[in-house]
Design a protein that fits this description.
The chain is mostly helical. About 45% of the residues lie in helices and about 5% in strands. The mean pLDDT is about 90.
Length: about 80
């Protein structure tokens, strides 16, 4: 399995928002601290709903918190389920 293509600025944003703890962000987003840790380490891609809740916790737009890293060759593989 390759690198998670969804990156984020959560750790930096927590620091810039009064040194918010992982637990404080987790409480605001309605998830566990473990989820925030996994997101910060790039080991987990959030659902769209969670991404919006996290962005809202910082008072920012989704794209100010999360970004998509394309394949270095510029291609994205899309599987159509055999259709």
């Amino acid at each position: 399995m390759g690198k998670n293509p969804v990156g984020n600025h959560i750790r930096k944003l927590r620091f810039n928002h009064g040194e918010m703890t992982q637990q404080q962000l987790a409480d605001r987003a309605g998830v566990t601290r473990h989820t925030i840790m996994a997101l910060e380490k790039g080991k987990y891609s959030p659902s769209l709903e969670l991404a919006f809740r996290i962005a809202n916790a910082f008072g920012l737009r989704l794209e100010e918190v999360f970004f998509y890293e394309e394949d270095p060759h510029g291609s994205i593989e899309i599987k159509d389920g055999g259709n």
